[in-house]
Specification:
The protein is of the alpha/beta class. It has eight helices and seven strands, in the order H-H-H-E-H-E-H-E-E-H-E-H-H-E-E. It has a seven-stranded mixed sheet, with helices on both faces.
Amino acid sequence: MDLEKMDEFFNKRVNMYDDHMLNEVEGCREGYKRMAEQIPDSTKKLLDLGCGTGLELDKIFRRLPDVEVTGIDLSKGMLDRLREKYNDKKIKLIRSDYFDYNFGIGIFDTAISFQTLHHFSHEEKTILYTKIYKSLNSRGLYIECDYMANTQEEEDFYFAENKRLRSEMGIKGGFYHYDTPCTIDNQIKMLNTAGFKRVEKLWQQAATVLLVAQK
């Protein structure tokens, strides 16, 4: 198995991505609905990390048609597809690595991520969660729906495999596509470490889990 660079992986799969997520990844179709239900009615500014083709935005725009969205993603192909879908909405799209991009301080009412953060380490996620925490206003909410491991043994296996594959390919750094899901308990600990006062698991179907973190 050869690892592909993250942006190249998703650019190659733009045309089949929506169908794959909706019909092949258990829990995602329902997860999009559940996430949208958790967006507070008062949300005016929304940060969407790893927005892809914007599948999660469909249900959100039905509830909040005037919400202003800032979407960040590495894949040009995905962002182009999102722009086609929602060209009548208030969307600012940024092609960037969300670990490096400056979100600002106290700007957003709500931040979301859907099936994007299961590729990164505890350290990387904790740094990102801290940035998200700071970008939210005083009553801000962060909602994450993602692929999570059932056990610590499962998590350890995926991280070990990722390390092995990178070593075999001579990869020193950069973002390459390989799933490294973390357990729900570890996810909650990372969010707490980043500053979130209350983190709850609200829903789960198979390995798809919905967490809500309150600033």
